[in-house]
Amino acid sequence: MKSKLFGAIVAPVSIVGLTFALGLGVTAFGVGEQQQTQSDTEISALDVTTEVPVAPWCGWYVSGAGDAELVLEPDTSLAAPTEYTGVEIPLTATADENTAYVGEGPNLSEQPSADDCSWFTDGNKYGARYDVVADGIEFIAEALLTSDGLIFTPTADPSMDFSAIAGNALRITNVDIDACSAEGFSTDESAEIADTNLETTPWSVLTGSVTNNNFCQWSAKYDIKIPAGMSPLYGNVTYRWTGPTLTHTLVIPEDQVGPDPAP
Questions:
Q1: Residue 111's domain spans which residues?
Q2: Which of 19, 27, 110, 138 has its CA 20 to 30 A from that of 206?
Q3: Is 141 part of any domain?
Q4: What is the share, in percent, of the chain residues with pLDDT greater than 90?
Q5: Are 248 and 150 in contact (CB under 8 A)?
Q6: How far is residue 175's CA from residue 96's CA, in Å, rounded to a whole number?
């Protein structure tokens, strides 16, 4: 009886133990899980910017050439007569100083710094030249007749007209321009307006010689002579001769290269 009772008692204990063990198995391995599904996650949106000054464009400029009228006077350095008596009178005049340069803007009288402007690329550079063109060669004479010290309307006197011709050309000397060759300028120190030659080019700069601050200063000196042997219609008066108009032009080549303008 005892052993049976003991066996009966042990059996339930064993079942409980088995149940407990199975319970441990379920707890250790769990029910399982799959890899989670993820989408892109924006962390931040970063705008990258900078602000840097852009240099002014370089360009060609001429300043100082402000003469509206050029008055020739007897050349005292040659002891020229100051009164016409039928003898030749050398005349001369020196115009205001001209300044030609590459820079960021007009009206400079001193060489700018190479950092003041930029062409940005060599392909944007372009050369230039300076032309002087006369509209004729005639010097037209007028007698300034006076009465009681008052000047009346000038009176033409064709017998005193003369022209710039070979042997008495309107000579233009570009004073100090030879110094500009060191700045890339090809210069013509002197030229003559006479007969059919009505144009001269004091300087030019090829594109390959262009920098950020090419610079040249010069003055144009003009010389011509009132010829000897003319017979005025009027004596004891002042005569005025009006010569050709000289047009000075900064010429930019037609093949100038640069970026297309903004629309």
A1: 59-251
A2: 110
A3: yes
A4: 72
A5: no
A6: 11
Distance (Å, rounded) from C-alpha 16 to C-alpha 2? Answer: 22
In whole angstroms, what is the distance from residue 122 CA to residue 103 CA?
A: 15
Q: What is the pTM of this model?
A: 0.77
Measure the CA–CA gap between 13 and 189, rounded to whole angstroms. 130
| DSSP reduced 3-state for 63 | strand
* Of 153, 150, 154, 197, residue with least CA distance to 172: 197
pLDDT tens readout for residues 50-99: 999 999 999 999 998 666 788 999 999 999 999 999 999 999 999 999 99
The two structure tokens encoding residue 72? 């020739």
Residue 5 domain flag: no
In a domain, 50, yes or no: no
Tally of structural domains, the chain: 1
The whole-angstrom separation of Cα 45 and Cα 186 is 58
Q: Average pLDDT for residues 219-237, to the nearest whole number?
A: 96
Q: Is residue 4 part of a domain?
A: no
* Percent of residues, the chain, with pLDDT higher than 70: 83
Name the residue with tokens 């930029």.
Answer: 118
With beta carbons less than 8 A apart as the criterion, state whether 99 and 250 touch.
no
DSSP string, 165-192: BTTB-EEEEEETGGGGGGGT-EE-SEEE
**How far apart, in whole angstroms, are the C-alpha atoms of residue 176 and residue 185?**
12
- Note the residue count of the chain: 263
**Structure tokens given for 76:** 């005292």
Cβ neighbours of residue 104 closer than 8 Å, sequence gap 6 or more? 55, 56, 57, 58, 59, 112, 116, 117
Residue with tokens 């020229």: 80
